[in-house]
């Protein structure tokens, strides 16, 4: 087990939200050990903990909220924090959505590293999978299996000639996340853009922050960062969503055709099946509680 981590110093950035199109400034600040990730809407004077119980919407992104106050599209930032092993941080936000930046977690990685990573004097608890557990939600499937390490296997299938089926399996580490997963951008289909905008989504979307697929190909002049960038971004989303469990998972995660809704429903099932995992902390086998 490793020590808990936070930032060495405050670091800030700004930009527009993918869905609201609204501008926000964000500041990441160091936090004491055992704090977890706390979002603070400074314009609303509201603190929202990054946890399963704070999720209020999973339509096209993961939205956290409390008492009528929301923070949308948190998954890319959460993925970056989880991918780099940042356990304790206070995130001050001046608007309703985390800026989308380039549509991936790559810029978040750079921002976090600019702030620096500080080790804290307490071990990081983690969940160890002891028995397989599976979940099906329509076409989506998610399962975790006992495994001496941290592995993620993801499969997607879309009825589009450029996508079809893609599958990737990676042993998770900070280096692998930063190199193989973080640069993968969010994506969408040109035929869906008008519908999304008419229903309050993708108001800030552009070719600068999303891969857009038309019937004849990818509209982005820069092309793809990976030939399988699409499945890599779905892995990024899952890592961000799974961080809401509150503990890293020691085990092999398999997901097929899942999205934000299925990810969160699986986490709720996992937290309820106490005979399938154990929480290991400073004292081996010490019981711990998942706060939902």
Query: How many domains make up the coordinates?
Result: 2
Oligomer: single chain
User: What is the CATH C level class of the largest domain, in words?
Assistant: Alpha Beta
Low-confidence stretches: 283-292
Beta-strand residue percentage: 35-45%
Instruction: Give the name of the CATH superfamily of the largest domain.
Output: lpxc deacetylase, domain 2
User: What is the third-level CATH name, the topology of the largest domain?
Assistant: lpxc deacetylase, domain 1
Report the order of strands and helices: EEEEEEEEHEHEEEEEEHEHEEHEHE
CA-to-CA gap between the ends? Answer: 23 Å
Major sheet summary line: 7 strands, mixed
Q: How many helical stretches? A: 6
CATH architecture name of the largest domain: 2-Layer Sandwich
Rg: 18 Å
Structural class: alpha+beta
Overall helicity: 10-25%
The total strand number stands at 20
Q: Roughly what is the average pLDDT, rounded to an integer?
A: 93
Shape: globular
Task: Please provide a written account of the structure.
The chain is an alpha+beta fold and 292 residues long. The protein has helices at residues 75-83, 106-115, 174-181, 190-198, 229-242, 260-272; strands at residues 3-7, 11-16, 23-30, 37-41, 46-49, 55-57, 63-66, 69-71, 89-93, 117-123, 126-129, 133-137, 140-145, 150-158, 164-171, 187-189, 211-214, 217-218, 249-256, 277-280. Strands 11, 12, 13, 14, 15, 19 and 20 form a 7-stranded mixed β-sheet that branches. The protein has a 5-stranded mixed β-sheet with strand order 2-3-9-4-5, with helices on one face. The two termini are 23 Å apart.
């Amino acid at each position: 087990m490793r020590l808990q981590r936070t930032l060495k110093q405050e670091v800030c950035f700004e930009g527009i939200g993918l869905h609201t199109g609204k501008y926000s400034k964000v500041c990441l600040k160091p936090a004491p050990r055992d704090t977890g990730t706390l979002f603070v809407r400074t314009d609303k004077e509201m603190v929202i903990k990054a946890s399963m119980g704070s999720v209020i919407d999973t339509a096209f992104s993961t939205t956290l909220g409390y008492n009528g106050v929301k923070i949308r599209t948190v998954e890319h930032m959460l993925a970056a924090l989880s991918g780099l092993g940042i356990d304790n941080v206070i995130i001050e936000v001046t608007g309703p959505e985390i800026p989308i930046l380039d549509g991936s977690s790559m810029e978040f990685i750079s921002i976090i590293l600019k702030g620096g990573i500080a080790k804290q004097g307490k071990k990081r608890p983690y969940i160890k999978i002891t028995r397989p557990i599976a979940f099906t939600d329509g076409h989506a499937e998610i399962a975790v299996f006992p495994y001496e390490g941290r592995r993620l296997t993801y499969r997607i299938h879309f009825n589009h000639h450029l996508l079809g089926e893609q599958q990737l399996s990676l042993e998770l580490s900070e280096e692998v996340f930063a190199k193989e997963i973080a640069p993968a951008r969010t994506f969408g289909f040109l035929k869906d853009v008008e519908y999304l905008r008419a229903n309050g989504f993708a108001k800030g979307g552009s070719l600068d922050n999303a891969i857009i697929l038309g019937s004849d190909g990818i509209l982005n002049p820069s092309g793809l960062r990976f030939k399988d960038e699409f499945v890599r971004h779905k892995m990024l989303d899952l890592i961000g969503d799974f961080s809401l469990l509150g503990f890293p998972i020691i085990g092999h995660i398999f997901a097929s055709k899942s999205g934000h809704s299925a990810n969160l429903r699986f986490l709720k099932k996992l937290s309820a099946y106490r005979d399938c995992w154990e929480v290991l902390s400073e004292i081996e086998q010490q019981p711990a509680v998942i706060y939902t």
